[in-house]
Amino acid sequence: MQKGLKKYFVNMDEYLSSLGLYRKMVARDASSLFRAVSEQFVEGSFEKYLERLEDPKETVGQVEIKALSQLYRRCFLIYRYPGKPATVISEDDFIDKVMLCCSINGHYDIVYPRSYPASAALCQCEYRSVIDYQ
Questions:
Q1: What is the DSSP-derived secondary structure letter of residue 51?
Q2: Which of 3, 21, 87, 132 has the largest count of CB atoms under 10 Å?
Q3: What is the mean pLDDT of each run of 10 residues along the chain (134 residues)?
């Protein structure tokens, strides 16, 4: 990873932590926005739209995020710069939110509350105990 990009992520992680948030890294490719969003939803498909993204060099932006906001009826908060508030992308007053971090190179990662890793681990542990029981 480039030195400037690494510094950006360190600064962004510190900033998000100060807000009580956590950035979960996503695979670094042109589909990072879709990976970051799709992990937060159980249902729904991007198949038709992703046909356009068959080229791994194709990237997405605010137009696609607005479409996702409407599709999932969620407000999107995009953290772009350490120390700066998130950009809100939604034309409606949706209560539910999707939080993402967009780096200077256009890559998207997931942003969760800092409590997320512990609660996700507990959920995974409970799920496995149910599976093991059967």
A1: G
A2: 21
A3: 83 94 85 77 51 60 79 91 91 88 88 80 52 53
Q: Is 51 left (phi over 0), alpha (psi -120 to 50) or beta?
A: alpha
Q: Which ranges of 1-134 would DSSP assign to H, the alpha helix? A: 3-18, 32-38, 47-50, 62-72, 116-133
Residue 75 main-chain phi, psi, to 5 deg: -85, 135
Q: Is 19 exposed, middle or buried (0-12, 13-18, 19+ CB in 10 A)?
A: middle
Cα-only R_g, the chain: 16
Kindly compute the dihedral angle of the four CA atoms of residues 13, 15, 21, 26, in this order, to the nearest 10 degrees.
-30
